[in-house]
Here is the input.
Amino acid sequence: ANAIKEHYMPRFAGDDVPDSLIGSILSISDKIDTICGCFSIGIQPTGSQDPYALRRQAIGIVSIIQEKRLHLDLKELIYKAIEPFSKKSILKNESSKIMEDVIEFFKGRFKNVLLDKAYDYDVVDAVLNADLNDLYDAYLRIVELSKWKTKEEFINIISSFNRVSNLASKCEKISINSESVKEPEEKSLLEAYENINKKFLTAIEKRDYNKALNNLMSMKIPIDDFFDKIMVMVDDDSIRNNRLSILKSIAIMMNKFADLSAIVIPKIK
Here is the structure.
């Protein structure tokens, strides 16, 4: 009976979230059913028009997830909510397109909630660009990244990461031939990546984001040395592709945490 009462919560901005876990589950289930049901039959908020209060319900789900520290797979949740409407053959669009629209809708509400809490927009974008499905996990990353953004040594390495990301975008397919890695600086960079990658991913899996970022910090010197001494875009296709592949591998590793290229470098006083 208490869970039935709590499933209406939060009823408005600033309202309490359900106190019990079962009330939280029931509230999320009811709200996601309404949101996905409306999106499935072509009813979406437009501009100031939101007759079914879908924005409020999405914000309610975000609030519950944050307050109750729930780790949910957003795509799986949305898929299960759309499935009954799909079985009734009443979808106004492909289920994959509806899922995409609902996910973007949630990301927009999630971003607004965090901006209202005074988190920097670039930090929020950096994490959301990493294509996360777990909103509470995204919140934890945003909290940690916000702390690191105040550190001068971290800001100093952002430009190095940006150089990696910019060139990595030119790599069409990763193919690293260790025998083609001959220059000392490219050897050092590849060795640093291979040494850090496993440690970094282990820290990500454990949600130890402070440790993960500390691991990334150790990449600065080999990255800077590489760009100071090595020409990436050389005429030799095999050498160029090999160097781009190394950079692409590093970029993929970094993006397992966040899209650090989205971070705006502030002026350090």
User: Anything to note?
Assistant: Residues 200 and 212 are 5 Å apart (CA to CA). The mean pLDDT is 92. The two ends are 56 Å apart (CA to CA). The first helix runs from residue 2 to 6.
